[in-house]
Amino acid sequence: MATETTLPRPSQGTVQQILGKQAFWVTISVFLIPVAMTVIEPSFSAAFWKEDNFFNVTRNFAFIAIMALGQVAVIITGGIDLSVGSVLAVCGIVLGLLMSNDYSFWLSAFVTILAGVACGGFNGYLISYLKLSPFVVTLGMLSIGRSLALAISNNKFFYKFGHDQTLLIELGGGRTFGVANPVIVLVVLTVIMGFVLRYTKWGRHLYAVGGNEHAARLTGVPVDRLKVSVYVLSGFMTAVSAILTVGWLGSVTNGLGIGYELRVIASTVIGGANLAGGEGGAYAAFIGAALIEVIRNSLLLAGVDPYWQGTFVGLFIIFAVLLERIRGRKVN
Amino acid sequence: MAVLDLRGISKHFGAIEALAGVDFSLEAGQIVGLMGDNGAGKSTLVKIMAGNFPPSSGEIVLEGKSVHFHKPVDARAAGIEVVYQDLALCNNLSASANVFLGRERKRRFGPFSILDDRSMHDRSRELFAELKSETRPADTVRMMSGGQRQAVAIARTHLSQAKIVLMDEPTAAISVRQVAEVLDLLRRLRDQGMAVVLISHRMPDVFSVADKIVVLRRGHKVADKPIGESSPEEVTGLITGAIKAA
Predict the structure, then answer these.
(1) Interfacial residues of A (vs B; Cβ cutoff 8 Å)
(2) Domains identified in chain A, total number
(3) Does the beta carbon of B169 lie under 8 angstroms from any beta carbon of chain A?
(4) Is A14 within a domain?
(5) From CA B43, how far away is CA B37, in angstroms rounded?
(6) Contact, A212 vs A34, CB < 8 A?
């Protein structure tokens, strides 16, 4: 039509699409930061570019990134899950309690996952059907979860895991083909989540709910069920992370995961998820968590006082949002 | 025969009477202009037809059969499509994803089924071509002009063989040039044999496309006549209450 020709044609070629993705720039940063540090501080290179360090960095961020995969689904729908740190503790304590009472690993892991799913289901139900704000509900769960972890553990600390102890420790702390096991789990889950978000109806509907919840409801998208499902997924991912974390640490206390919610949410935001909903992806969660760990590790190896880590990570979060704003201005 | 017949529709919200015994009929290949001031009951009537809520009393007869809608999806399944004033589009999704929202085409692989984007793109492209709009299926709605967004919202109504399309203020928030585009789209819907209800405040739009005009005032129907027998002056009088009925 006549009006068409006068409009600027939006460029949506593959190259522009990639360049327009925040995750792409974060990926570049993940590689550029250590390179820059090597140039500035030659002694850094010897410590950083080592297989052992690579192993540590990837493993360290895997636990957060697995939780971020669940969180990103929540954030795509326009919600938020602040309870993941506390749910991690509940799951870890449940696992520790069962295994220390000599239940098998598989049964304990199954119950742990049920615990995570139950916490997520509780959040999701209140948010979807009672129409309470996700922020408030999950903030409540943050408190409930921590208290449950204390109550269930009776403030005890678990470090003996019965007859399946080696299996648990191996799963969380071991390696397969030189790669830390949690990293393998993370990669598999990222690929699955990436595929599901991009190619299934469920994934498409998550973006629709985040983009325009009212429109989604009018067109017959099962918005309420969908919202429950993302909080359940977040609980599930947190439980998986809890099993691996306990295996890696070799012990579990009710203080597990304090403050993790911020690291998890920060990962998704740095990767390009939009807290207003409708944007984000599995790779965003993965690479965002990777960047935080690379910054942390680089600063540590460069001999920067660890007290400054939070400042750098915080600046990156703000920078990520700023980048988002600048890109948004270009589009509009 | 009328495609849709509303008989004695009333709707109360507590003590407020939004509609009082409105009769309204709609024929295939006809555009009905539904006019009235704010609060006259236009939106309430449309929402009843669209299945957003049931009438307090009265009957909805679709192709000779009495129907009851519990939610918008029921009305859609019966062949009544709505283009909402805000278009109800997801800005973050592509044109074709919006067209197929809630009715995605899928391909099955054993127990799994994945979105069939190619087929949805192809069908959307056809629909946009039918509407003579150059909207591209893969473009994100956020990037589109007002007219293109309208085309996406209208293409959605073509997906199933809709019999009735309700358009709520389609020309309220777009530029003058795009209004002409949207009115053309409406004529094309009529030519394809659909019954169209155009809810609008804009007198010139209604008089340029509608075949029949229905005016509501304070929940009562005050006029229902062929457009040729009315005039903008008369309609203005009916809307404001200067003329009691026509």
Answers:
(1) 1-4, 7, 10, 12, 199-201, 204, 207-208, 210-212, 214-216, 218-221, 278-279, 331
(2) 1
(3) no
(4) no
(5) 11
(6) no
Grade residue A5 by pLDDT with cuts at 50, 70 and 90: very low
Task: Provide the pLDDT for residue A9.
Answer: 44
**Residues whose CB is less than 8 angstroms from the CB of residue B73 and which lie 6 or more positions away in sequence, other chains included:** A220, B51, B102
pLDDT at residue A297 above 90?
Answer: no
ipTM comes to 0.80
- DSSP annotation of A162 reads G
Per-residue pLDDT tens digits for A119-161 = 999 999 999 999 999 999 999 999 999 999 999 988 888 888 8
pLDDT tens-digit readout, A45-83: 777 777 788 888 888 899 999 999 999 999 999 999 999
A218 is a domain residue: yes
Sign of CA dihedral A208, A209, A211, A214: positive
* Residue A55 identity: F
Chain A hits for B46, Cβ within 8 Å: none
Q: Which two tokens stand for residue A62?
A: 């895997």
Domain ranges of chain B: 4-92+162-240
A295 residue type, one letter: I
Q: Is B109 exposed, middle or buried (0-12, 13-18, 19+ CB in 10 A)?
A: exposed
**Given this model, what pLDDT does residue A332 score?**
45
C-alpha torsion angle, residues B179, B182, B186, B187 (rounded to 10): 70
For residue A194, the model assigns a pLDDT of: 93
Of B90, B132, B134, the CB nearest to A215: B90
Compute the distance between CA of residue B230 and CA of residue B246 in angstroms, rounded to an integer.
9
**How is residue A184 written in tokens?**
């393998």
**Which residues from chain B sit within 8 angstroms of residue A2, using beta carbons?**
177
User: Does A97 reside within a domain?
Assistant: yes
Backbone φ and ψ for B19, nearest 5 degrees, come out as -135, 135
Domain residues for A129? 57-290
For the stretch A84-121, pLDDT in tens is 999 999 999 999 999 988 888 899 999 999 999 999 99
CA dihedral A139, A145, A150, A154 (to 10 degrees): 160
List, in sequence order, every beta strand (DSSP E) within A135-246.
Answer: 175-176, 179-180
Query: What residue type is assigned to position B114 of the chain?
Result: I
- B211 burial level (CB within 10 Å; 0-12, 13-18, 19+): middle
Confidence band, pLDDT 50/70/90 cuts, at residue A1: very low
Q: Which residues of A26-55 are buried (b: 16+ CB within 10 A; e: fewer)?
A: bbebbeebbeebbeebeebeebbeeeeeee
DSSP category for residue A116: H
Within chain A, residue ranges assigned H as helices are: 2-6, 14-19, 22-40, 42-48, 51-76, 84-100, 105-129, 134-153, 165-173, 181-199, 201-211, 213-218, 223-249, 260-271, 282-301, 309-331
> Beta partners for B222?
none
In this complex, the residue of B82, B91, B132 whose CB is nearest that of residue A1 is: B132
The residue-averaged pLDDT of A207-217 equals 91
Interatomic CA distance for residues A98 and A101, integer angstroms: 5
Q: Give me A124's structure tokens.
A: 């999701």
Q: Which CATH architecture is the domain B4-92+162-240 placed in?
A: 3-Layer(aba) Sandwich (3.40)
Does residue A119 belong to any structural domain of this protein?
yes
Q: Tell me which DSSP letter residue A11 carries.
A: P
| pLDDT on residue A82 | 94
